[in-house]
Design goal:
This protein has 3 domains: 43 residues, no CATH class; 100 residues; 135 residues, Sandwich (Immunoglobulin-like), CATH 2.60.40. Helix content is 1%, strand content 38%. The protein is an all-beta fold. The strands form 6 sheets. It has a 6-stranded mixed beta sheet with strand order 17-25-24-19-22-21, with no helix packed on it. Strands 9-10-11-12-13 form a 5-stranded mixed beta sheet, with no helix packed on it. Strands 1-2-3-4 form a 4-stranded antiparallel beta sheet, with no helix packed on it.
C-alpha cells in the first residue's frame, strides 16, 4: 500500500477464494479449473510460502455434531480468539433457530427464538473488540453485544439513521469498529439525498412445489451384498450451457439430472457438489441418498435448496431455463467413508448416481 504497487503473493491457475487473514497468514481455498477437491492453504504474505491447511481451518466449517436437524445454517463471523458464530435453522416463518458460538467443538447458545416473531434476532453483521462480540440486527435498529464475562447478550438502540429513500427496494447499513467501541447511543449525520429510484421490475416468485408427490416415489437404492465392490457410475460427457460462468462438462447418472463437481470424494469435511439439469426438463428435482454398504448419510446444503424431512432429502424448486442448463451448486458432507447412491427424482424421471467416498481429507495437488 505504501509503495502504491501490486505484489503477487501466490499465483494459482484456477480459482482462489480468500477466507480470512490473521496472524497465521492468509487462509485461501482453491478448486481446480475442471473440478475436483477443494483444498485450503495458509499463505505467508511476506515470503509467499504456502502450506496446506486442514479442512476445519475454514471458519465456515461446522462440525457434524453441531449441525441442526434441518441442516440450514449461516456463518456470521469469527473473533480474535477463534470463536465462530453461526445461525442454526432456516428463515421460514415460525421455524425455531439459534445463534451459537463454537470453539474447539464446544457450543454456546447466545440466543434462541422463532423466525418472524416479535423477538426475531437475525444478525446482519458481526465484529469483535475488547468488549466482546458485536452483532448487528438493523431491521429493528439494534446492535447486540455478547459479553464473555457477563455470559449474556445486551442490546443497544441505534438512533439517528436516515430513513430509506422512497422507492428504493433495498438499503443496507453496516457498522464496523472505528477505534474503541463503547456501549451507548449512536447519533449519526443524515445522509445526502439520493436521486429518485426507477420503478423496479419485480422478480418472479419462486415456484411453490408440493414435494409429497416426489417424496412418494420409492427410493431405488438397494444395499450391497457383503464384500461387494462399489458400482461407481460411469462418467457422462455433457454439453452444459449455463446462463453465466463456466460449468463442468461431465456428470454422473442417467439424466436429465446429473451429479457433478468432483471425480473423487472424501469423508473429511464438506466438498462442492453440483446438480446439472438438462434444459429438456424444467421441473423440480428431489435429491435423496443412502449408503449402500453400511450406515451413513450425505448432508446437502446450499442456497436455493429446500431441506425436507425424509432423512436428509433436499429439493430444488427451480432448475433449468431453456436453452440454459440448471446449475445448482452447494456442498455435501459425508458422515463416513463408503459407497453411496444419490437418487434424483423429477416429475417424469428417476436418475441414480453411485459414488465412492474415501476415508480422510482430499490429498494435496
Amino acid at each position: 500500500m505504501a509503495k502504491k504497487a501490486d505484489r503477487t503473493v501466490w499465483p494459482y491457475k484456477a480459482g482462489i477464494e480468500v477466507l480470512g487473514w490473521d496472524s497465521s497468514g492468509i487462509l485461501a481455498s482453491t478448486v481446480p479449473a475442471q473440478g475436483g477437491a477443494r483444498l485450503l492453504w495458509r499463505i505467508d504474505p511476506a515470503s509467499g510460502g504456502v502450506v496446506q491447511a486442514p479442512q476445519n481451518a475454514d471458519p465456515n466449517f461446522l462440525p457434524l455434531t453441531v449441525l441442526p436437524p434441518a441442516r440450514n445454517y449461516s456463518y456470521l463471523g469469527t473473533d480474535a480468539q477463534g470463536r465462530s458464530v453461526f445461525r442454526l435453522g432456516s428463515r421460514d416463518p415460525g421455524t425455531k433457530y439459534s445463534v451459537v458460538m463454537v470453539q474447539s467443538g464446544q457450543v454456546t447458545t447466545l440466543y434462541s427464538g422463532a423466525a418472524g416473531d416479535s423477538t426475531d434476532f437475525d444478525p446482519d453483521t458481526f465484529f469483535s473488540d475488547a468488549h466482546g462480540m458485536w452483532l448487528g440486527n438493523f431491521d429493528g435498529a439494534l446492535v447486540w453485544l455478547w459479553s464473555q464475562s457477563a455470559g449474556h447478550l445486551q442490546s443497544f438502540k441505534v438512533s439517528g439513521l436516515p430513513p430509506a429513500p422512497s422507492g428504493y427496494q433495498y438499503s443496507n447499513v453496516t457498522f464496523g469498529p472505528a477505534g474503541e467501541c463503547v456501549p451507548g447511543t449512536f447519533t449519526g449525520a443524515a445522509a445526502k439525498g439520493l436521486p429518485p429510484a426507477s420503478s423496479p421490475t419485480p422478480s418472479p416468485s419462486p415456484p411453490k412445489v408440493d414435494w409429497s408427490a416426489l417424496t412418494a416415489k420409492p427410493v431405488n437404492l438397494q444395499p450391497l451384498p457383503a464384500g461387494a465392490s462399489c458400482p461407481v457410475s460411469t462418467q457422462v460427457n455433457l454439453a452444459v450451457k449455463g446462463q453465466s460462468g463456466k460449468w463442468p462438462n461431465y456428470g454422473f447418472g442417467q439424466g436429465p439430472a446429473y451429479v457433478s463437481g468432483q471425480f473423487m470424494w472424501y469423508s473429511a469435511g464438506p466438498q462442492a457438489i453440483l446438480i446439472l439439469v438438462d434444459p429438456k426438463y424444467t421441473g423440480p428435482v428431489l435429491v435423496r441418498s443412502r449408503r449402500l454398504d453400511g450406515t451413513g448419510l450425505l448432508a446437502f446444503s446450499g442456497e436455493g435448496s429446500t431441506s425436507l424431512p425424509d432423512d436428509g432429502a433436499m429439493g430444488l424448486a427451480q432448475t433449468s431455463s431453456p436453452p440454459y442448463w440448471g446449475t445448482w451448486i452447494g456442498s455435501v458432507t459425508p458422515s463416513a467413508p463408503g459407497c453411496y447412491g444419490i437418487q434424483l427424482d423429477g416429475t417424469s424421471f428417476t436418475s441414480v448416481a453411485v459414488i465412492s467416498v474415501s476415508k480422510g481429507p482430499p490429498p494435496p495437488g
